[in-house]
């Protein structure tokens, strides 16, 4: 079964390679130093994204070599290749930033260029939903900026949420699992395989990244994960051309989307640049309210799981309502614990 093979192989490669990459990072001095804005108290290797990228890439190559992707029609094939190659490019942009500290302007220009090429290759948001009239087909002049904003925005949203041990990896892993099930339900097996490999890589990385973390994923990992999730959402769900399917990626990834949007609006309201880092993210606010590191992370996990379960229920998946009820119970329990703990 290609889906299980992609998940397990990706997780296995990440599990084996992460300690090796950590040793290389320590020897080369490629570490994330503590400062007033960051939570960690000692220098941490920030190359964990190399392990995630390697695991996902190896898994996809093996599954492809074994014929797991089947025979794709030309339109689907171009989208799959665009997501794969675009993910590689976003990973390299992030890795260059981890090693050489690129300027925000340089990173943004490169990301926009790669996202535009992905759009040209078939990763396109062609429809929006209108509650009154259903789907609205977008002209190319509007589809291009919407798609670029989605791809670049999600890459940076995952990077921005990577502020606590295990947070970005866990949120991304949960989202990838939900994305896998929904793509499979929507009849998009190629996109489901990519999501399965990404889920294996991110969840496997938690062995070394959950609190107390031994290594960080860095910008390379965050950009790769964010772009790949966004790309899979387009080729696996938005391309299904139904009112429900078009909405699903935004529901599944609601937590990082809303966190990023709230931070940008708050910075603009205070007259600050939206690109200047601060401690206004949800995880910072939870820590300031008195929550422990782990409880803050687990609460955001439960929010992500709840949003994903809502997406599965809305999609009409078998047992989708049961998943939503179960996730609501989990969210209620963690919310109760947060209420007890918060100042």
From TrEMBL:
Main location (coarse class): membrane
A single GO BP: cell wall organization
Transmembrane intervals: 46-67, 79-96, 108-129, 141-161, 173-199, 220-238, 244-265, 295-315, 321-339
Entry annotated with the keyword Manganese: no
Subcellular location: Cell membrane
Binding site for Mg(2+): 159, 219
Topological category with respect to the lipid bilayer: Multi-pass membrane protein
Keywords, alphabetical: Cell membrane, Magnesium, Membrane, Metal-binding, Transferase, Transmembrane, Transmembrane helix
One Pfam family, short name: Glycos_transf_4
GO molecular function, one term: metal ion binding
Top-level lineage group: Bacteria
GO cellular component: plasma membrane
Cofactor or coenzyme needed: Mg(2+)
InterPro entries xrefs: Glycosyl_transferase_4, PNAcMuramoyl-5peptid_Trfase_CS
PANTHER family: PHOSPHO-N-ACETYLMURAMOYL-PENTAPEPTIDE-TRANSFERASE, UNDECAPRENYL-PHOSPHATE ALPHA-N-ACETYLGLUCOSAMINYL 1-PHOSPHATE TRANSFERASE
Name of the featured protein: Undecaprenyl/decaprenyl-phosphate alpha-N-acetylglucosaminyl 1-phosphate transferase
Species: Myxacorys almedinensis A
